[in-house]
Specification:
With 556 residues, this protein is mostly helical. It is 80% helix and 0% strand. It contains 21 helices and no strands. The longest helix has 50 residues. The two termini are 49 Å apart.
């Protein structure tokens, strides 16, 4: 017990130190932790470390994916959903099939089905690994794509892994596999949505921030465990619960509770991510020993892993290149449509314009109500906001290179490999190949992504971006002033200030903040402002509300 306590405390200190020292050395902290883990695996006390894969897949990943989903800008996720869906489903399947052929050729006694199983293990990018890209200068569109891909592609890979294993028993059915995948996703989405809704319903009635945060720690498991029991994807359920929470929390939870959530979940992310990378390194000796005992050497397995990593990069580049061309074409079509939408928006902003549209609709004998016009107005606003977002964040060579090179493998690959059945042909070699791909991916891609992006020129002018940010800040300030003016001033009484007048002024200020927050959240849902600029404005409102409530508590 004492040894376990010492190891745990040491691990926490190592994780904290790597988070501080890594950036100062110009090395991503996950790479530092993997290196430390590999070095520690050479010590006698860690000679036979084995981490149950279920601890990673069912205990660590759900809270990490949930936390990432909560903090992800929902509007950017919606805008990039087409690209995210392709990367997390089509690319995973294509990569797994290509790797299946490769492994069938280069590994003796491993047929196509087992090759696809290993390909499914290696194919998904890792949400924990892609945290490295957030430490570089990359566009928000790339971050949205990579975040969304890493949140959803695990489900595709794990379902494909189960399908490939079933196929080895010669009972494979294509349509049955498609049905299993659809069932896994739909049931997970339903359970995740319900868990997120229930989470907000309960926590909205709990005023104690500490208790509120403790409840939030259970949400990813409330979503993932029932989904797994029903044969669905627990990871997708946790992601959906996080998305629902992230979208609705500013409306349903108090600023104090959300601030407490944010601070505590950042700590949880740091510890869990650090533990994942540390244990990856610690397991290297055990995996290598197994291969040496079974097959006498690891050199061939490492070479195969290098070839597999190269193939994943090539397949990813072959998919991303046409994807970016399609996305760029959509932007051009949107740019051509922009003047027409602006004209419609200008017309609908006046009562005369709305009346003209109603009369025109009446001439076509279509029944159009004011509610229909309001709905159309919101769609036009969203459409213009989407076009402006895509024009502001172009996808050039630099962004394409980032999407390709940032597709790193990590914890999911290592954990999923260890779930292969014991009777898998050359199982220890397959596990080592998966592990080597993950480590080489982190070292090669993770270690060079920063210099690569600095070498490639950007199509975005920093001065222009700064000017756009200032302009958006000015628009937000105008929106806040308008919202504040809409709240009636409190009635003033003559004489000395009293507790009653102080309370009245406090309530007025809180009402102003509530009106301003409502306007900002409506603008967020319409995508009117940049996600980061809007998030800063909401954070400032939260800080003001917390300060007012604290001042009122101290005064009373």
């Amino acid at each position: 017990m004492t040894e376990l306590l010492i190891v745990s405390v040491t691990a926490l200190l190592v994780i904290a130190a790597s988070a501080v020292v890594g950036p100062r050395l110009g090395i991503a902290s996950p790479l530092v932790l993997v290196g430390i883990g590999v070095a520690a695996s050479l010590l006698p006390m860690f000679a036979s470390v084995h981490i149950e894969p279920e601890w990673i897949l069912e205990g660590v990943l759900p809270p990490l994916l949930y936390s990432s989903a909560v903090s992800m800008p929902a509007m950017n996720f919606r805008r990039e959903f087409g690209a995210i869906g392709g990367l997390s489903v089509l690319l995973v399947i294509g990569t797994a099939l290509a790797l299946g052929v490769f492994f069938m050729i280069v590994i003796p006694d491993v047929g196509f089905a087992w090759g696809v199983a290993l390909g499914a293990i290696i194919s998904p990018t890792d949400a924990v690994a892609t945290s490295i890209i957030k430490q570089t200068s990359v566009s928000k569109r790339v971050l949205a794509m990579l975040d969304g891909e890493s949140l959803l592609n695990d489900a595709t890979a794990l379902v494909l892994l189960r399908t490939a294993i079933v196929a080895t028993a010669a009972s494979f059915s294509f349509w049955s596999s498609v049905g299993t995948f659809v069932y896994s996703v739909l049931v997970a989405v339903a359970i995740g949505w319900f868990a997120g809704w229930l989470n907000l319903l309960i926590r909205g009635r709990v005023t104690d921030s500490t208790v509120n945060t403790v409840i939030s720690f259970t949400v990813p498991f409330v979503a993932s465990v029932p989904a797994e029991l029903l044969g669905a994807s627990g990871l997708v359920a946790a992601v959906v619960a996080g998305l629902v929470t992230g979208i609705r929390a500013p409306r349903d939870l108090s600023p104090r509770n959300r601030l407490s959530d944010s601070q505590n979940w950042r700590t949880v992310e740091l510890v869990l991510e650090g533990a994942v990378f540390l244990t990856m390194g610690l397991q290297i000796r055990t995996i290598v020993t197994d291969v040496q005992n079974d097959h006498g050497g690891v050199g061939t397995a490492v070479l195969i892993a290098a070839g597999a990593l190269l193939l994943t990069i090539v397949v990813r580049a072959a998919y991303v290149a046409p994807l970016l061309r399609v996305l760029t074409g959509r932007v051009r079509r949107g740019e051509k449509l922009q003047p027409r939408l602006e004209s419609m928006q200008e017309k609908m902003s006046t009562s005369e314009g709305q009346q003209e549209m109603l009369e025109r609709a009446a001439g076509t004998r279509r029944k159009v109500s004011q509610r229909d016009l309001d709905r159309l107005g919101r769609r036009v606003t969203k459409g213009l906001a989407n076009i402006e977002y895509f024009l502001r964040e172009p996808l050039g060579v630099r962004e394409g290179a980032a999407v390709v090179w940032a597709g790193m493998r990590g914890a999911v690959t290592v954990a999923a490999a260890q779930t292969l059945p014991e009777d898998t042909p050359q199982r220890s070699v397959l596990v080592l190949i998966a592990f080597a791909v993950a480590v080489m991916s982190l070292v090669v891609q993770g270690g060079t992504i920063g210099p690569l992006l600095r070498m490639l020129p950007s199509d975005v002018d920093p001065a222009e971006v700064e000017a756009q940010t200032r302009a958006e800040q000015d628009r937000i300030m105008e929106l806040l002033r308008t919202a504040a003016d809409s709240v009636a001033e409190p009635s003033h009484t003559d004489g000395e200030p009293s507790q009653e007048t102080f309370t009245e002024a406090k309530n007025h200020r809180l009402a102003v903040i509530a009106a301003q927050r409502s306007e900002l959240l409506d603008a967020r849902d319409n995508g009117t402002f940049d996600a980061d600029v809007l998030a800063n404005a909401l954070a400032n409102l939260d800080a003001s509300e917390i300060a007012i409530e604290l001042r009122g508590t101290l005064t009373s």
